[in-house]
Amino acid sequence: MRLLLALLIPPLVFFTIYRPFQGIFCAILWMTIIGWPIAALWAVYSLSQYRNEELRRDLRWR
Question: Mind listing the pLDDT tens digit for each residue in 14-33?
Protein backbone atom coordinates (compact mmCIF):
# COMPACT_ATOMS: atom_id res chain seq x y z
CA MET A 1 0.00 0.00 0.00
CA ARG A 2 2.82 2.38 0.84
CA LEU A 3 4.49 1.64 -2.49
CA LEU A 4 1.40 2.77 -4.38
CA LEU A 5 1.23 5.82 -2.16
CA ALA A 6 4.89 6.53 -2.90
CA LEU A 7 4.18 6.61 -6.61
CA LEU A 8 0.99 8.66 -6.47
CA ILE A 9 1.48 11.00 -3.49
CA PRO A 10 5.17 10.84 -2.50
CA PRO A 11 5.15 13.30 0.45
CA LEU A 12 2.68 11.21 2.44
CA VAL A 13 5.10 8.28 2.53
CA PHE A 14 7.62 10.33 4.49
CA PHE A 15 4.99 11.18 7.09
CA THR A 16 4.04 7.51 7.46
CA ILE A 17 7.67 6.50 8.05
CA TYR A 18 8.19 9.28 10.63
CA ARG A 19 10.32 11.67 8.56
CA PRO A 20 8.30 14.90 8.54
CA PHE A 21 11.05 17.30 7.42
CA GLN A 22 11.81 15.18 4.38
CA GLY A 23 8.07 15.04 3.74
CA ILE A 24 7.83 18.82 3.65
CA PHE A 25 10.79 19.09 1.28
CA CYS A 26 9.33 16.34 -0.90
CA ALA A 27 5.99 18.17 -1.00
CA ILE A 28 7.71 21.28 -2.34
CA LEU A 29 9.50 19.17 -4.94
CA TRP A 30 6.30 17.28 -5.78
CA MET A 31 4.43 20.50 -6.59
CA THR A 32 6.58 21.08 -9.66
CA ILE A 33 5.95 19.06 -12.80
CA ILE A 34 9.66 18.35 -13.31
CA GLY A 35 10.18 17.38 -9.68
CA TRP A 36 7.33 14.88 -9.43
CA PRO A 37 9.21 11.87 -10.89
CA ILE A 38 12.22 12.65 -8.73
CA ALA A 39 10.01 12.91 -5.63
CA ALA A 40 8.37 9.58 -6.47
CA LEU A 41 11.72 7.83 -6.91
CA TRP A 42 13.02 9.36 -3.68
CA ALA A 43 9.93 8.17 -1.81
CA VAL A 44 10.26 4.61 -3.15
CA TYR A 45 13.96 4.55 -2.22
CA SER A 46 13.29 5.89 1.28
CA LEU A 47 10.51 3.37 1.77
CA SER A 48 12.84 0.50 0.88
CA GLN A 49 15.46 1.83 3.30
CA TYR A 50 12.84 2.08 6.04
CA ARG A 51 11.78 -1.53 5.46
CA ASN A 52 15.41 -2.68 5.66
CA GLU A 53 15.88 -0.81 8.93
CA GLU A 54 12.73 -2.42 10.34
CA LEU A 55 13.98 -5.89 9.40
CA ARG A 56 17.35 -5.23 11.01
CA ARG A 57 15.68 -4.04 14.21
CA ASP A 58 13.50 -7.14 14.31
CA LEU A 59 16.47 -9.45 13.79
CA ARG A 60 18.50 -7.77 16.52
CA TRP A 61 15.83 -8.35 19.16
CA ARG A 62 15.37 -12.05 18.39
Answer: 999 999 999 999 999 889 88
